[in-house]
Design brief:
Helices cover about 15% and strands about 30% of the residues. The protein is of the alpha+beta class.
């Protein structure tokens, strides 16, 4: 708990979230959170105190403690400033059913909100490399077998190749880092309101597909079966039979 914050036994957290941000809660529809309509296209969100770590990361316009009497105290303060709604609470899963919301539903966004990757100055090591197939092939055919055995690759039919493993080959290209089943280009990150789990669900990646994200928010998809364990023989065979990345 931060300085000046009080903890009440059995208390819950309440936050105020914009209707346009409700989809960011989709990954938590089954954990017992509740929503209650507020004014100006906003919703009250109520979560158990055990979920504080997640609650603090949500895109909320305000955060409060709610005690057993329904009194709400803003985080960092000691004096209650209002009372939580006594009625109107509904389970999160009711408002965010599996699948897209019905168009025109009360306080739901009418269309998906566009997003793009954001610049990131964190020093994240590259876990994959996108480069030109001729460059990778020339290096692979000259490399020692143990140097190749730690790598896997998937070749696209436009002469690109996506290479994973460590250490990556010393070939010019774009490095990528991984977030779940998403691959993000170096120097970029997802916006704070776009969670990897939510995006994976939206893209319907399942357990055998990956998404290669681009800075403008577009993506390509790859299946695990497209990846081949690197060896000189595999490179020679793949030269005549490239796979295709899928661009939805």
């Amino acid at each position: 708990m931060g300085k000046g914050r009080t903890t009440v036994s059995g208390a819950r957290f309440i936050g105020l979230i914009a209707a346009t941000d409700l989809q960011s809660l989709a990954s938590w529809r089954a954990v017992g959170w509740d929503l209650c309509a507020a004014a100006a296209d906003r919703w009250w969100l109520r979560v158990p105190q055990d979920d504080e770590a997640v609650f603090m990361k949500l895109p909320l316009a305000g955060r409060w403690h709610e005690d057993a009497d329904g009194l709400m105290t803003r985080l960092g303060k000691r004096v209650p400033e209002q009372t939580a709604p006594a009625t109107g609470w509904v389970p999160l899963a009711t408002l965010l059913p599996v699948g897209p919301p019905r168009r025109g539903a009360v306080a739901m966004p009418p269309v998906p909100v566009a997003w793009s990757l954001e610049a990131d100055d964190a020093d994240r090591p590259a876990e994959a490399l996108m480069c030109r197939w001729p460059d990778f092939m020339a290096w692979a055919l000259a490399a020692f077998a143990p140097r190749l055995e730690c790598l896997s690759f998937a070749r696209c039919d436009d002469d690109r190749v996506f290479v994973t493993g460590h250490p990556l080959p010393p070939v010019r290209g774009q490095g990528y880092h991984r977030a779940g089943r998403l691959w993000l280009p170096g120097g970029h990150r997802l916006p704070s309101h776009v969670w990897p789990e939510l995006l994976e669900e939206r893209l319907r990646l399942g357990t055998s597909r990956f998404a290669l994200l681009h800075p403008d928010g577009s993506h390509e998809e790859m299946a695990e079966e497209n990846f081949v364990r690197a060896s000189r023989a595999a490179v020679r065979l793949t030269e005549g039979d490239p796979v295709s990345f899928e661009t939805p």
